[in-house]
Amino acid sequence: MGWLSVGGVGMSESEVEIVILTGAGISAESGIATFRGADGLWEGHRFEDVASPEGFRRDPGLVHRFYNLRRAGLGEVAPNAAHLALVRLEREWRGRFLLVTQNVDDLHERAGSERLVHMHGELKKALCEGCGKSWEWVGDLGTGDACVYCGRVGVVRPDIVWFGEIPYGMDEILGALGRCRIFVSVGTSGSVYPAAGFVDLARRVGARTVECNVAETSASGNFGERRTGLATEVVPALVEELLGSAW
Ligand code: OAD
């Protein structure tokens, strides 16, 4: 078993908690478009039209069509080497592990990740705005669909956390960040809070912080280390290093 010296205190590897945050960049090489293109649009739409409660109330049909396309597209993509490397890390890491994703695709779970929080929701779930319950959903969703729990029609939406809404799993995430010794961010621009602030929380408890991204981001300066390159290359290499002799 390896040992890590944190603030002069030796810790066994089994005590080292690691938190990984992923964003759209980890799924880019699987063929899913990232959010922040040069034109500031998301697949040709304004964010406020397809990613806000107000947009949904204005035009629920448009919002359903938008997410139906994304949901259907999941059948055409597969997890890549970066997703798979994080599964290996989860399985072989002896300490506590938490994977937090901002992604609404299902590539982490299809790769085999288990300790996973979808903080921005999931394409493959529907949510009832009437009773607050959510459930698995694989096909198209529309304004005529009824809640499987309360039966109401017209209040069912994609289970996606939109702007102005509170992300899922924040208690668990903040708990893990408060204990973690290593924080790794993969493929996120670091422009959407609260996820963009996780690196600061990790640094506050003295964690090692690593940013993996193909390009410099506005958050790069907040990280202690940077791995620049494609996620499918830098993430497997980092996992190898974390599981290897360094510990
Ligand atoms: P962005 O589109 O803002 O950022 C994607 C990041 O991935 C950028 O920093 C790219 O440089 C990087 N990137 C692209 N391809 C890569 C590759 N092959 N390997 C490594 N890095 C790569 O996406 P997010 O940061 O995930 O929220 O966006 C955060 C949130 O904004 C999303 O979860 C979404 C959106 O509003 C909701 O839907 C609620």
Description:
The protein has 247 residues and is of the alpha/beta class. The protein is built from nine helices and eleven strands. Strands 5-4-3-9-10-11 form a six-stranded parallel β-sheet, sandwiched between helices. A three-stranded antiparallel β-sheet has the order 7-6-8, with helices on one face. A two-stranded antiparallel sheet has the order 1-2. Helix 5 packs parallel to helix 9 and helix 7 runs parallel beside helix 8. It is globular and about 55 Å long. Bound molecules: 2'-O-acetyl adenosine-5-diphosphoribose. 2'-O-acetyl adenosine-5-diphosphoribose binds next to helix 1.
Comma- or semicolon-separated keywords:
247 residues, alpha/beta, 6-stranded parallel sheet, binds 2'-O-acetyl adenosine-5-diphosphoribose
- Helix tally equals 9
Total strands: the figure is: 11
Overall residue-averaged pLDDT value: 92
Query: What summary fits the major beta sheet?
Result: 6 strands, parallel
Ligand types: 2'-O-acetyl adenosine-5-diphosphoribose
Low-confidence sequence ranges: 1-10
Shape: globular
The ordered H/E elements are EEEHHHHHEHEEEEHEHEEH
Q: Percent helix among the residues? A: 25-40%
Instruction: Provide the β-strand percentage band.
Output: 15-25%
What is the radius of gyration?
19 Å
Distance between the termini: 8 Å
Brief account:
The chain is an alpha/beta fold and 247 residues long.
Give the helix/strand layout.
Layout: E1 3-6, E2 9-12, E3 18-22, H1 25-28, H2 47-50, H3 53-58, H4 60-73, H5 81-92, E4 97-101, H6 107-111, E5 116-118, E6 121-128, E7 134-136, E8 156-160, H7 170-179, E9 182-186, H8 198-204, E10 208-213, E11 225-228, H9 231-243
Parallel strand pairs: 3-4, 3-9, 4-5, 9-10, 10-11
Antiparallel strand pairs: 1-2, 6-7, 6-8
Helix pairs in contact: 5-9, 7-8
The structure holds 2'-O-acetyl adenosine-5-diphosphoribose.
The site of 2'-O-acetyl adenosine-5-diphosphoribose (OAD) has 24 residues, from helix 1.
